[in-house]
Amino acid sequence: MTTSIKIFDTTLRDGTQGEGISLSADDKLKIAQKLDALGVHYIEGGNPGSNGKDIEFFQRVKSLNLQSKITAFGSTRRKFSQADQDSSLVRIAESGVPAATLVGKSWDFHVHTALQTTLEENLSMVYDSIAYLKHRGMEALFDSEHFFDGYKNNPEYAVAVLRKAQDAGADWLVLCDTNGGTLPGEIHEIVSRIRQELTAPIGIHTHNDCELAVANSLAAIQAGARQVQGTINGYGERCGNANLCSIIPNLQLKMGYDVIPEEKLRTLTGTARYVSEIANVNMPVGQAFVGNAAFAHKGGIHVSAIMKDSKTYEHIEPELVGNKQRILVSELAGQSNIISKAQSLGLDINANNEQTKSIMDHIKELEHQGYQFEAADASLELLLRNAFGEPIEVFKVDSFKVLMESTSGQMNSEAIVKLNVDGQQVYTAAEGNGPVNALDNALRKALVQFYPKIEEIHLSDYKVRVFDEKDATAAKVRVLVESSNVENTWSTVGVSSNVIEASWEALVDSIRYALLNMEKSNTAPSDNSERIGVVNH
Predict the structure, then answer these.
(1) Cα atoms found within 13 Å of the Cα of residue 244, Cβ hemisphere only
(2) Could you give phi then psi for residue 521, rounded to 5 degrees?
């Protein structure tokens, strides 16, 4: 029988402690849905009483009916107090989540220095807090902070802390390498000893300060741990947490453990890139398994061999984790994916078609310029339809202008757009909360008289990413716009050294895509129902 490993994702809590990462409540809810679709077993949402975003998250996540177990985070009760009167513990119990993780000290040095209390009182804090959660009918996980450092310094006390949590009814004893300084051999040896001394199931929580978080997690699993904690893309404080995007496929594909369903493993790359976009953090191109270059091949004997048999230079089939092979020097680079996407749209495309080769070259050139279509599928669909379909041009952008002025310390933005809509000249102006919002308002104002359904569309997310940072304020930017209506959500992309131009391109693509779907669902206005909006890149 295959051994099952539980995946505990703490991207929404520990991951947000990484430098430069800040997630709104909406961001956290979107990521939670992606994690649920991936099949992780636990999603740690944060501390229900620590800040407004976390409070809102726990209130709203209930309506999503996720399969993953939503988990709250907190710490053991305050010293010399009662658990049922500890405000943090009470908020966790009243949050309505089925499970909670409590962090407690297992290193005697921390008990004396950080908590400034006695070793005996710390043991009582652990026992009382876990027992309180169990009395409230919750699943209780105990994060034994600094466990490995504590064990190496005072093994008897570190084990005593775990035993107190176990006696109180803890469902999981999670051993934490909080400072990230333990080596894989030490992890394996210590976890093996703990498995012999205690009966509660063991989890592992590692940090990446020595670039060993993934290796340490795998070593703990080999030694008998049955839960692994980490974050998507390894986000976290200092050097980050254990990267679940490496841990999950290693456990399942290399070590033979039962982790997540095979079909969900194929969504791993998409999940990693989606979270990267939401967090607005560049994903390392060479990130294992899910990086853009993880299965890329360039030149010489590598390409020659890979074209004969991919196993010559690929340790797994990239499709198993939702990634794809890329041959950087060949005209075939990514072509199979593009062909598959186009054919799914009902477009006439094949590998030997000159038009196909032309659009492939065009996509490569756009990617070279900085476009990225992984998280902007709507823009890619428009690009392909424009190349292979037969759209009727309804609106063209003749010009647009943005005016900004500061009056009495208040910044005002106004946008003016000039369009040609089905042969009619339309000239409109609108104000907005910033130049992008003004452009969005002006575009909608120009088109709503032709397409009233546009009023149902709203911009749900807007992110700007700078690349070529060395160019400072002259650097190119990539703008990702997410739009929604009552039926659908889609994302579009724009690239320029001018952030307004990049934003405008993404906004126009968003409206074009909406009009395309209006036509497909026969919801466009009757006077223009046979047409869709088109502008060329």
Answers:
(1) 34
(2) -100, 5
Q: Are residues 433 and 360 in the same domain?
A: no
CB 474 within 8 A of CB 417: no
The residue out of 258, 287, 312 marking a domain boundary is 258
pTM: 0.71
pLDDT band, residue 343 (cuts 50/70/90): low
What is the rounded CA–CA span in Å between residue 90 and residue 301?
Answer: 63
> Looking at the predicted structure, is the pLDDT value of residue 138 above 50?
yes
3-state secondary structure of 406: strand
Quick check: 219 pLDDT over 50?
Answer: yes
Any idea what the CATH number is for the domain that residue 172 is in? 3.20.20.70
Q: Which CATH number belongs to the domain containing residue 354 in this structure?
A: 3.30.160.340
pLDDT band at 309 (very low <50, low <70, confident <90, very high): confident
Q: Do 131 and 83 contact (CB within 8 A), yes or no?
A: yes
Average pLDDT, the chain: 87
CA distance 127 to 142: 10
Residue whose pair of structure tokens reads 């006077």 in the numeric block: 527
Residue 332 has pLDDT above 50, yes or no: no
Tell me the per-residue pLDDT of 519-531, one tens digit each, with 9 for 90 and over. 655 444 434 333 3
Which CATH number belongs to the domain containing residue 412 in this structure? Answer: 3.30.160
Q: Would you say 220 and 191 are in contact if contact means Cβ atoms under 8 Å apart?
A: yes
The boundaries of the domain holding residue 66 are 6-258
Q: Tell me phi and psi for residue 494, to 5 degrees.
A: -140, 150
340: number of Cβ within 10 Å: 10
Distance CA 469, CA 476 (A): 8
**What type of residue is 269?**
T
Q: Is 38 in the same domain as 143? A: yes
Please list the residues that pair with 479 across neighbouring strands. 464, 494
The domain total for the chain is 4
DSSP per-residue letters across 509-534? HHHHHHHHHHHHTT-S-GGGTT-B--
